[in-house]
Amino acid sequence: MGEGSKRLKNGFFAIADQMIVSAGTFLSTMLICRNCSDADFGIFSLAWTIIAFLRTIQERMIAAPFLAFTFRPTFNRTSFRGSTLAHQAVFSTASTFLVFTAVVVVRMLGFDGGHFWFGLSLALALWSTLGRDQMRYVSFTDFAIFRLLLLDLLVVALQLIGLVVLIRTEVFSIFLANLVLAFGCLLPIVAWLWMTRRTYDIDHEAVALDWHHNWNYARWLVLARIFGIAPVVVIPWLIFSFEGDTGNGVFGACTSLVGVSLMFVQGANNLFQPRTILELQKNGIRGLLTAVGESTGVICVGLFCISIGFLFFGNNLLAILGTQYVGFGFLTFLLSVSTLVLSISTMLSNGLAALKKSKDFFWGEVSYCIVSIASALVLIPSQGLNGAAYAMILGGLAVTIVTAIKLADGVYNYAAESNTIETSDFSMPCEIAPCEIAPCEIVPCKTERT
User: Which terminus of the chain has fewer CB atoms gathered within 10 Å of its CB, N or C?
Assistant: First the structure.
């Protein structure tokens, strides 16, 4: 099979896999939403912002270094892959323990026992969800996308079947729903670990050394991401404070519906992200700018059409989640616009990744955090749920502008350095040191904020 055919095949499987994952998330959210009260769904949505935060930290702390270094000769070893799995296992276990401890403390303070059991099920869902994310990261890096497609099909099938059984037997609760979402991931994870068992090896000495090396690379990405993900966590809590758990349930339902557009964004980013990095290496700045321009154009056209669809048919689509959400169609349109604006910054950040400008991600994420949260504090009390969406749009504009400025600066400096190297006088004899090629920084898609 030719290289072009292989890329086309992998691209098809990547988009198909993202469609399955997004569809599974939407359908499971719909089933949960339609079978619990607005207040319960508000609590469910609020609690899963904690999982979203920890998933994002894992992306930057564990996945990003693995993606950046795994193809280098000194890191293309089974012990490095084993180190990555060990790092992820420690992170997911520690995160689960922290959530469990927080739940116990809340119970000791005298809060409702139902919330206690819900918190325990959330801790289990967190552990299995982080494990599934690791499975997906490594599979994409190995280009084992068809196998991942089958495993994600199994995850979605187990979760949806489990939720339908709960509903049919009339024992549904958000506590049991979390357990179904957790156990739906376990069998596929075990199957994946068994199928890939020959590709990794746990070396205790390498685990520590690799962690030190990876952390030096990832610390700026993690710091930036903490600021970038903060609005996703803080804004729902602000909505809860001003609008109550019912308002938060409505916002969560609209966010879940708009999240379907992420299927398109993430699928496109899986293709354009490595291409942007490769284009800089092969064709220089012109290739990088071409890749960034093409990816931005594709994202803008696709998400513009989706936003127009939400503007005219948002209420009809919300009726699928429940008749109580009809009337909030304009909110879905605003949230889809925030996804559009934020996705542009994602495509621009791929250019920064190719230029190895990890610190420059920090300023864009900080701008998103400050503008979004500050705007939400002002707009939610006066504009309600729409105010939260307006705040996210303003934050998206801020990060896009800052990222564009940083990318322009990076391109200018790269071009200047390249021109200096080309025009240098090499007539004098010199000692040529071995070339040290810095790894490209492959940054996960940021659009889960919406």
Answer: N
